[in-house]
Specification:
- By secondary structure, the protein is α+β, with helices and mostly antiparallel strands.
- It folds into two domains: about 40 residues; about 80 residues, no CATH class.
- Strands 2-1-3-4 form a four-stranded antiparallel β-sheet.
- Strand 3 and strand 4 form a beta hairpin.
- It is elongated.
Length: about 130
């Protein structure tokens, strides 16, 4: 092999390093697989979500799903004193019971009060509540 020829040196370096140009036909299937896995994750997450609530400045808004009006009224009372801000409450179905997931800055005592409000209601009552679309 002629080492003075720049093209042969480049071929030799590529062969040693194992670098090959990326085949564009491989990129599309990889992107599709990643998108499909992401879509399955989102669908599975939504399937177990009973309701999702946003709390801004003490005001509770149902974002997804449905929740019985008396339970919603109790949650509004908990969110007002002291007012919560920037909190997301997800009520999930987990092993035949409701599980509360809180995202945001929630004091421990208010978080426990939210869990108590949700936990005292049978899951069937939460699931059969009117749903927001």
């Amino acid at each position: 092999m002629d080492t003075d020829d720049p093209a042969s040196v480049n071929r030799q370096v590529l062969a040693v390093a194992g670098n090959r140009p990326m085949d564009a036909t491989l990129i599309a299937p990889v992107v599709l697989v990643i998108a499909a896995i992401g879509a399955l994750y989102v669908a599975a997450r939504r399937a177990v979500t009973i309701a999702e609530l946003d709390i801004e400045r003490g005001s509770v808004r149902v974002v997804r799903g449905g929740i019985a009006p008396p339970i919603l009224a109790d949650l509004r009372d908990v969110a007002k004193r002291p007012p919560l801000d920037g909190v997301t409450v997800r009520i999930l179905r987990s092993s035949g019971r409701a599980e509360v997931e809180l995202v945001g800055n929630v004091p421990a005592d208010q978080a426990q009060r939210i869990r108590n409000v949700i936990g005292r209601v049978p899951i069937a009552r939460l699931v059969n509540a009117p749903r927001r679309r």
